[in-house]
Amino acid sequence: MNTISLAPLAVVLPFIGAALAFILIRHTRAQRVISISILSVTLILEVILLFSVWETGAQAVNVGGWLPPVGITMVVDQFSALMLVVSSAVSLAVLIYAAGQGMTDGDEDGPISIFHPTYLILVAGVSNAFLAGDLFNLYVGFEILLTASYVLMTLGGTTPRIRAGVTYVVVSVVSSLLFLITIAMIYAATGTVNMADLAVKLGDLDPGTQLMLHLMLLVAFGIKAAVFPLSFWLPDSYPTAPAPVTAVFAGLLTKVGVYAMVRTETLLFPGDRINSLLMVVAGLTMVVGILGALAQTDVKRMLSFTLVSHIGYMVFGLAVGSVVGIGSAVFYVAHHITVQTSLFLVTGLIERRGGTANMDRLGGLAKLSPLLAMLYFIPAINLGGIPPFSGFLGKLGLLEAGVDLGTPLAYLLVAASVLTSLLTLLVMARVWNRAFWRTPEDAVHPDPILLATGAGGSSLRNSGEVVETSSSRFAGRNANDLLPRTMVYPTVGLVALGVSLSVLAGPLFSLSDNAARDMLDRTPYIEAVLGEGAGQ
Amino acid sequence: MSINITFMVIMGALYACGIYLLLERSLTRVVLGLAMLANATNILLLSTGGFQGLAPLFNAGIAVEDYNDPLPQAFILTSIVISFSVTAFMLGIIYRSWVLSRQDEVQDDIEDRRVASQSSFDAEDDADVPEDTTEFTPPEEAEEAPGSLRATGQSTRPEAKE
Questions:
Q1: For the CA atoms of A121, A379, A165, B35, what is the dihedral angle to 10 degrees?
Q2: Is A159 within 8 Å of B48 when comparing Cβ atoms?
Q3: Which 3-state string (H, E, C) describes A254-272?
Q4: Containing structural domain, residue B28
Q5: Is the pLDDT of residue A150 over 60?
Q6: Do B124 and A298 touch (CB under 8 A)?
Q7: Stretch (H or E) spanning A75
Q8: A181 touches chain B (CB under 8 A)
Q9: At A471, is the secondary structure helix, strand, or coil?
Q10: pLDDT tens string A311-348
């Protein structure tokens, strides 16, 4: 059997899981079992897909047997297969983390029972967007994941979440409408929405029309990817959501936007028409984002700003437009999904252990929980780009691509990315110094839970009982509840995945370079969809 | 490709009204604005189908050129479903925010404006006032705008060192 025909299952399986989870809405335990096992199966399937396209390159499936350009096509190439595997691995880890949180906090009857089906729908939407071979299916994928994300964002319906959710929903809907308008215009101009077909036909259009369509697509995707002038909504909305939700949003949703931007730049509108503009935008995204992060005292908000900032690196690679540049951007996306998600998961653990995610109130966590300290430290220096880790390798590739290009703007961008990297390290080190190294008494407003455990010392750890505090949400819990194993293990797994990206950097870089070469060449993608000879 | 002038006029009016409503502060109007924008986009999609023609139901006796282009109509159908679900969800959010803020006029973005008018975003929402306590304030205090507790919490909060 042809392995590529498994591709639609990456979308269908999570949907089936979501349906089952909906049916079992009263049985939280069954929900957990179903959603975790469905996602595991999906992950295995996607790994098979990745290996099947590793050497051969792009392959296409025509869903329902309708031939392109009329039917719905799903295309798997190295880039989309890599994205599928990384995103599913990350969402599986977050799901286990969330299930662990639910088991510890006892959500058996809460409104949280909606979490599992919605989460699976989100995963289905992400997979659909990565697999989409035509613009309209990409739009549908976006809408599936966005609609699921609206629900997850406002889970529980507290005042801050509703306030943040409104901004998020309105901004997302506007960007989706912009995307739909662009699709309508592209369809009016070319009579097709199949991406491979468009790659052939868009080049024949009048240059002015091409530029307009190109920019409209990039604005629509830029809002989703949170590229600088369009990134205002992200740090305001992500941090209010529950920790696992923020983690998966930070890891996946913006990257789907980046993925769509890469496809736009390589497949639909090749050439360096707006690369200078993209470089300026990339530089501003990096610098403005990290300056925002410097001003934060809340770890979640700070991480949201670093997320925006590091989107700039991916746009940088895209703007350079060489094989090395796009290859490094592909590698960087994979690296950043894992690292950013693990950091958000760790922040969730910090919030549980320390009672708050505010840097002014945290302290002494390294002593309280060395494991937590390690879990923060590894992805933090990975994000900051310290040599043995994948963050360094990705950035090195980007710098190399920038220097290869050699224009003044490229050198400026190289300088900006080095500066951003250093500032990221500074921000990460500041969290480390404040939350982990100093004693709780040194904090401006130490959280009572930290002082309580600090004063009570060993007796507390033995009895497992924390002194009663009135202002902490986690008051009265024992130490096992504060850092449950079911939440720590998936975080460990995700951090390990981040480290393994560094260990496997050789094969991964060859994969991402192959992906970049094929994407820049365009013929493999077009021929996979339309048949031999179509890409000429 | 022929263009239907009625479509164009309706589309333009819908886009203009939709954008105007989107910029309003009341959430209900924002939702109406989004619905108008979605409908305007649907008309745009419809007009990309080109000439008017027969319904695209296959009949061997009809020449190919006489059919309308079915693809934009399929797009519109999908888009209607999506905008329907989003509108329903937005209405849910509006109701929820009305329940939370106990105001007839939904003006949820006042809080946003307050945050935006501050010199920095440093203050975390629940830095000093844990969010749970707002639920247990006496009724007379709860009558005030929900942001007032936050506001006092932030103003009395000592400046962070550094």
A1: -60
A2: no
A3: HHHHHHHHHHHHHHHCCCC
A4: 5-52+67-107
A5: yes
A6: yes
A7: strand A72-76
A8: yes
A9: coil
A10: 999 999 999 888 888 999 999 999 999 999 999 999 98
The answer for B 82-141 residues in CB contact with A (under 8 A) is 82, 85-86, 89-90, 93, 96-97, 100-101, 108-109, 111-112, 115, 120-122, 124-128, 130-134
The answer to whether residue B25 sits within a structural domain is yes
Please state which of the ranges A228-242, A300-314, A357-371, A497-511 shows the lowest mean pLDDT: A357-371
Would you tell me how many other CB atoms lie within 10 Å of the CB of residue B57?
A: 8
Residue A38 to residue A15: CA distance in whole angstroms: 10
For chain B, positions 34-93, list CB contacts with chain A under 8 A: 34, 37-38, 41, 44-45, 47-48, 71-72, 75, 78-79, 82, 85-86, 89-90, 93
Which chain A residues are Cβ-neighbours of B22 within 8 angstroms? Answer: 170, 174
Question: What percentage of residues in chain A have a pLDDT greater than 90?
Answer: 30
Average pLDDT, whole number, for chain A?
A: 84
Please report whether residue B94 resides in a domain. Answer: yes
Residue B76 belongs to some domain of the structure: yes
**Total domain count, chain A:** 1
CA distance A152 to A242: 8
In a domain, B134, yes or no: no
Residue ranges making up the domain that contains A324 = 272-503
CATH of the domain at B24: 1.10.287.3510
pLDDT, tens digit (0-9, with 9 covering 90-100), for A351-401: 888 777 777 777 777 777 888 888 889 999 888 888 888 888 888 889 889
Structure tokens, A343: 């950091």
Number of structural domains chain B divides into:
1
Residue window 5-24, chain B: list those with CB within 8 Å of chain A. Answer: 22
Whether the ipTM is more than 0.85: the answer is no
